[in-house]
Amino acid sequence: MGKRIVIGASLMALTCVAFYADWAVERAGWPRLPVGPAGQFRQARGAVLTALVTLLIAAGYLELARLASAGGTPIFRFTGLLAALLVGTLPFWRQVMAVGRHGGMVLPVVLALALLAFFIEQLGRHRTEGAIRHVGASLLAVVYLGVCPAVVLGIRIHFGLPAFILFLAVVKFTDIGAYFVGSLTGRHKLIPWLSPGKSWEGLAGGLALAAACGAGVSAGLRVLFGPAGTVPMGPWAGAAFGVAVGLAGQFADLCESALKRSAGLKDSGAALPAFGGVLDIIDSPLLAAPAAYLVLAVVCQG
Question: Who has the most CB within 10 Å: 118, 135, 163, 249?
Answer without folding.
Answer: 249
